[in-house]
Amino acid sequence: MAASSSSLPLPLLLLLLQLTLLLSSPVQSADEEENLLQGINKYRTSLNLSALSENKNAHCFAGELADQFKSQPCTNTTGADTVPGTETQFSNYPDLLSKCNLDIMNTRDGVIMPACVPNLVPDIVLSNFTESQYSQSLNDTKYTGAGIGSEDNWIIVVLTTNTPPGSFAPGTSAAVAPKIVFTSHLLSVLLGVFLVLLS
Ligand SMILES: *[C@@H]1O[C@H](CO)[C@@H](O)[C@H](O)[C@H]1NC(C)=O
Ligand SMILES: *[C@@H]1O[C@H](CO)[C@@H](O)[C@H](O)[C@H]1NC(C)=O
Ligand SMILES: *[C@@H]1O[C@H](CO)[C@@H](O)[C@H](O)[C@H]1NC(C)=O
Ligand SMILES: *[C@@H]1O[C@H](CO)[C@@H](O)[C@H](O)[C@H]1NC(C)=O
């Protein structure tokens, strides 16, 4: 009996606990994002507007933004209560775009709407978008897609259009090229070394 109880190793239990946490937390925030998109689309339907479709690239970017916001406290100078024009600007905006392989030329017409709600209570989250200055953007036929990201108390909605400047289409070949160039450069260097060794 004693032997069998000591054969349940503590590290294994800790590992299981970690796995559970790892698996459960993203699911939870994905639920909140999904709820918000559904709520926004109900709002759009009530205004006779088409539903916003999910934009994967905007979703990626919203996640990167949420990561930047998460350490900031909820105050009246951040989020949906922001006085227009005083929004937080990130100096690493280009880096965030490139993390999602996005080209700034394809994001100019998009809209970024951050909100901070303790514990992301669904009803309050939704009203932070539909009953704030953001409602103007949500009530706009120009926007056809959305990506939502969340971290801690922050949830970010990024709206996209179906025209190139707001499409959030992945970067053109120019943005992707450096990787390929690097690889072929490396290959030719290796090939060069090989040829030198052969001669
Ligand atoms: C919504 O659109 C329908 C059909 O186009 C129209 O009959 C109705 O009046 C519109 N409702 C509102 C609230 O605009
Ligand atoms: C934020 O709140 C503080 C204290 O409650 C107030 O003095 C300040 O004017 C508020 N700022 C804005 C932008 O509403
Ligand atoms: C937005 O969320 C905050 C909580 O951070 C809440 O105090 C505020 O009433 C909400 N605003 C709207 C318009 O729902
Ligand atoms: C939505 O936009 C239309 C057209 O600009 C406007 O007539 C309507 O009052 C707006 N509704 C809301 C709830 O903002």
From TrEMBL:
The organism's place on the tree of life at top rank: Eukaryota
InterPro entries for this protein: At5g19230-like, At5g19230_dom
Signal sequence extent: 1-29
Domain Uncharacterized GPI-anchored protein At5g19230-like residue range list: 33-159
Keywords: Signal
Protein name in UniProt: Uncharacterized GPI-anchored protein At5g19230-like domain-containing protein
